[in-house]
Amino acid sequence: MVKKKNNKPMLSSATKLGMIALLIPIAITVYVLTFFAWKELQTLPIFEKLAQQKAIEEIQQHFDMNIPEKYIPIYVAAEEKYGVPWTLLAAHHRIETRFSTIKTMVSSAGAEGHLQFMPCTFVGWKHPTCSGLGKGNITKAELMNPETIAKYGGFGVDANGDGIADPYDIEDAVFSAANYLSKYGAAKGNIKKAVFEYNHSNEYVENVLYYYKLYDDYHDDLKAAVLLNDEK
């Protein structure tokens, strides 16, 4: 005859309840410690950088073409010097050369560089060869010489202090554009007038203003995120 096994539980109900009562505060303690440890980890530079990068990516999703992050500090520096919104400079850059992604930096009319300056506008319309659209007969040495630019009243700027004002250098080009737009009222809020002076085309003005308004909705947030991310 086979004996039936005794299936009595190894632990009584009271013992189980006691163990549960002991485990609850331990679990709570582990959870709290884990929570604060995670919060502390989030203050580390690597986590802050990831958070800022995520914020930048979320903002850029609103644009048909990302504003290259490497250019934003340059726009901002030009804004600080000339009072022209960095988002307006970005809009011009977007329209002129698609953020410097076009194959050639010289237009059919003769405009040059990242922000497409006509040589006479860059070096100055007082140059003896300047007339018409402003292509002129200006040598490369003249075009990039700050002293020559000052002599002829041009808008070219040596932004990085290397002794030349180069429309093919992104810093010089952006600062030159800011210089021009500021001169024609952008720093005082006359955005539309300044843009029209940059290019006498209503379609051009509409296109630039479209991107300016789009970018300007995120003026402070994108600026803060990129600059903070750049510091990490």
Note down, in words, how this protein is organized.
With about 230 residues, this protein is an all-alpha fold. It has helices spanning about 15-40, 45-60, 70-80, 85-95, 120-125, 140-145, 145-150, 170-185, 190-200, 200-215, 220-230. The mean pLDDT is about 90.
Please write out the topology.
Layout (H helix, E strand, L loop, with lengths): L12 H29 L3 H16 L11 H11 L3 H12 L21 H5 L16 H4 L2 H7 L17 H14 L7 H8 L3 H15 L2 H13 L1
Helix pairs in contact: 2-11, 3-4, 3-8, 4-10, 8-9, 9-10
Keywords:
232 residues, mainly alpha, elongated
Q: Which structural class is indicated by helix and strand composition? A: mainly alpha
User: In which range does the helix fraction lie?
Assistant: 55-70%
Give the integer mean of the pLDDT values. Answer: 89
Gyration radius from CA atoms, angstroms: 30 Å
Shape, per Cα inertia axes = elongated
In short:
The chain is elongated. It is built from eleven helices and no strands.
